[in-house]
Design goal:
The complex is a heterodimer of chains A (411) and B (252).
Chain A: H1 2-12, H2 15-38, E1 40-44, E2 50-54, H3 55-66, E3 71-73, H4 75-92, H5 100-107, H6 111-120, H7 137-159, H8 164-175, E4 181-183, H9 189-210, H10 212-220, H11 222-226, H12 234-267, H13 276-279, H14 290-318, H15 322-343, H16 347-351, H17 363-368, E5 372-375, E6 378-381, H18 382-407
Antiparallel strand pairs in A: 1-2, 3-4, 5-6
Helix pairs in contact in A: 1-12, 2-9, 2-12, 4-6, 4-7, 7-8, 9-12, 9-14, 9-15, 10-14, 10-15, 12-14, 12-18, 14-15, 14-18
Chain B: E1 16-17, E2 20-21, H1 22-25, H2 27-30, E3 33-36, H3 48-58, H4 63-76, H5 92-104, E4 110-114, H6 122-135, E5 140-144, H7 149-152, E6 158-162, E7 165-170, H8 172-177, E8 183-189, H9 193-199, E9 201-207, E10 212-218, E11 228-229, H10 234-241, H11 244-251
Parallel strand pairs in B: 3-4, 4-5
Antiparallel strand pairs in B: 1-2, 6-7, 8-10, 8-11, 9-10
Classes of the chains: A mainly alpha (411), B alpha+beta (252).
């Protein structure tokens, strides 16, 4: 414990670590502020002029407004909303012709719940979403959730035609979803994008802190002294890894807590009750609400970050200088992003420690998508592949780091 | 030395301590071992005190004894005033002394130091010699140095290594006996000095008032009439084994 405490102190007191921690905290605030600042709404003023609200005032206006329509999205409620929408649009010709005050009074509140209708009633052959004006409210009232399930089947047929096991998996998962969906509109999708972006930033910062953990000692020659001490081999390596990992967990949890606290205070915790399907796609598979999604993203992000830094520990124990470790670690960190862009979903992209971190390949997008990796006749949903790979890699890389550190020869 | 420190694996052979292979002894060997490498490396963010506390923990020095032990060593090595300073900001001599302090934290039974006095001023070197002399009772202290005067009077056994091989071993008296009658001194005219330097291995010269220069040189025979044989010192032996042209050759 004494060695652990001193090791934590050694890492924390490094100027490099202090700067990177400060950057991590600052970025948590910035990445929460940006999606808040993107919120805006136009509303009619008392004298008929258009008032533009941005940021927090816009969010507050929307929250007060949406509170009236929040609740379970039953088929009946959806059909009634569609009727209101269609009659309003019919009266003025097109949606664009609807006056602002009428739009705010009659349509704005029901738009978030109507979003899923286009998808559910999409063309089964092309997958193109239906026009709201073309959907029959009676059909919505009778078959909305059945149409969601059949749309999922169509999508799986389009995307995973050769892999019936993937289609079966999706159908089974979808059947487990709690229905009717719940909606409290207001939460921004941008907020989740920025959460995943912040996880990428944290990964970069933690990698930069982890890179010199062993390699810097080799580089400065202090390793020659430390490995001659009683606890300078395995115990030091294990303690270092545990101390650094503990610091990363604290940085990650602290950074994410600040980030999510700001977001949730701004957008309101009521929005977190919204079903995953009502913010993203009505045919998405995760059985969770937005609050649970935040927790899942934090846990999956933490596992991915730990897998990335475990790999960095291994490289740090293997290579002789910090810069080489940093460069290789960064390549590994960004590799899934480029691999996904170039090759789409591949096993290589899926099993890398950083597979769940990135832009289009991040864990959130994997949850929203229907990407599967296949071995023979078996299909594996990519979020599971990413998580299981990362969980397996953490102890493997840590073990390798200890082993390579103990076997290192001073030359 | 790195092999003795068990941080480098010998390509052949083994090193034994009290009949046990040090590689197999592992932690129990490192527990009685202290090491100062030639290049003293440290983490740039460590203060002297933090660094010594860290090494003490690695050496399993009991927590309650650590502060006392550190203060004692800092006092002996005249580092007490800088114990809260960053090591990176210390002078070369002070860094070296921090290196010596860390090596001695666990009262090692085997202390290995590579060029421990590099960068120390004459006063510090004298203090170091006395400290090591006192410390070395019932212990193995192995010092590698090019500064022969550091160990001349305190070493019980000297080994001379040349190109990785031990060429001679023994006490200072035993070793210097080998060049008895081969160290000479005489006075020569200052103007002729360069010709003598070309002919002989002049190891020391001192100007005198009357246009003469007193020289000390190594030779099998007197070579200069009036030259007197003097008592050899360990430094003479070192220069006997390592002629200047060889050193220059090694440097190149």
């Amino acid at each position: 414990m004494r060695l652990f405490r001193l090791e934590v102190k050694r890492i924390i007191m490094s100027r490099r670590t202090l700067v990177l921690i400060a950057v991590a905290i600052l970025m948590s605030v910035i990445s929460a502020y940006l999606p808040i600042s993107f919120e805006s709404i136009n509303r009619p003023g008392e004298n008929g002029e258009v008032i533009e609200l941005d940021g927090l005032p816009a969010i507050k206006f929307k929250r007060d407004y949406y509170a009236k329509t929040a609740g379970d999205i039953t088929s009946e409620k959806l059909a009634e909303a569609l009727r209101v929408y269609q009659s309003c649009v019919k009266e003025y010709g097109t949606l664009d012709d609807v006056p602002l005050d009428v739009y705010i009074e009659n349509i704005m509140a029901i738009r978030p719940m109507l979003k899923g209708l286009s998808e559910a009633f999409a063309d089964p052959k092309t997958g193109i979403g239906a026009e709201l004006m073309d959907i029959a409210p009676d059909e919505v009232e009778q078959y909305f959730y059945e149409r969601c399930a059949s749309h999922l089947d169509h999508v799986m047929n389009l995307e995973q035609k050769e892999y019936p096991t993937a289609g079966q998996f999706a159908a089974d998962e979808y059947a487990k979803l709690k229905q009717p969906f719940y909606l409290f509109p207001g939460m921004s999708r941008d907020a989740f994008d920025y959460t995943t972006l912040y996880i990428l930033v944290l990964s970069i910062l933690c990698t930069a802190i982890a890179a010199p953990i062993f390699a810097n000692e080799y580089q400065t020659g202090s390793d020659s002294i430390l490995r001659c001490t009683k606890y300078g081999r395995m115990k030091l390596a294990v303690t270092r890894i545990l101390a650094a990992s503990s610091i990363f967990i604290v940085i990650f949890v602290l950074g994410m807590s600040i980030h999510l606290l700001i977001l949730n205070l701004a957008f309101g915790t009521d929005c977190l009750e919204t079903s995953f399907q009502m913010l993203f796609s009505v045919i998405n598979l995760p059985d969770m609400n937005l609050g649970q999604l935040q927790i899942v993203l934090v846990l999956a992000g933490l596992i991915s970050v730990l897998a990335v830094i475990s790999c960095t520990f291994f490289l740090s124990a293997k290579c002789k200088d910090s810069l080489t470790v940093l460069l290789i670690s960064m390549v590994i960190l960004f590799l899934p992003i480029f691999a996904y862009g170039a090759l789409g979903d591949t096993w290589i992209g899926g099993i890398l420690p950083s597979a769940g971190i990135g832009m289009k390949n991040n864990f959130l997008y994997q949850l929203c998508d229907f990407h599967f990796l296949h071995i023979g006749g078996m299909s594996f949903w990519t979020p599971y592949v990413i998580l299981i790979s990362a969980v397996v890699e953490i102890p493997v890389f840590m073990f390798l780091a200890v082993r390579f550190y103990c076997r290192h020869q001073v030359v | 030395m790195r092999m003795i420190a068990d941080i480098m694996t010998p390509t052949s052979g083994a090193i034994y301590y009290d009949g046990a292979d040090i590689r197999k002894m592992g932690e129990s060997y490192r527990n009685i071992f202290g090491f100062l490498p030639q290049d003293f490396g440290y983490s740039r963010d460590f203060s002297v005190k933090d660094y010594l506390e860290y090494v003490a923990a690695l050496k399993d020095v009991p927590a309650r004894e650590t502060t006392k032990k550190i203060n004692y060593l800092l006092d002996i090595l005249t580092l007490s005033d800088v114990k809260r300073k960053k090591i990176a900001k210390l002078s070369g001599g002070m860094k070296r002394r921090v290196g010596i302090a860390q090596a001695m934290l666990n009262d090692p039974k085997i202390l290995v130091m590579d060029e421990p006095t590099a960068g120390l001023d004459p006063g510090e070197r004298v203090r170091f010699r006395n400290f090591i002399s006192e410390f070395s009772h019932d212990r193995i202290v192995l010092i590698s140095t090019h500064i022969v005067s550091d160990i001349e009077y305190i070493a019980t056994r000297n080994a001379i290594m040349k190109a990785g091989k031990i060429v001679d071993i023994g006490t200072t008296d035993e070793l210097v006996k080998e060049i008895e009658g081969k160290v000479w001194t005489c006075s020569v005219p200052a103007g002729d000095l360069s010709s003598y330097e070309m002919r002989l291995r002049v190891i020391n010269q001192r100007g005198e008032d009357n246009g003469q220069v007193s020289i000390r040189y190594l030779s099998e025979t007197p070579e200069i009439s009036g030259a007197v044989a003097v008592s050899p010192r360990l430094e003479d032996l070192y220069l006997w084994y390592f002629p200047q042209e060889n050193l220059e050759g090694e440097g190149k």
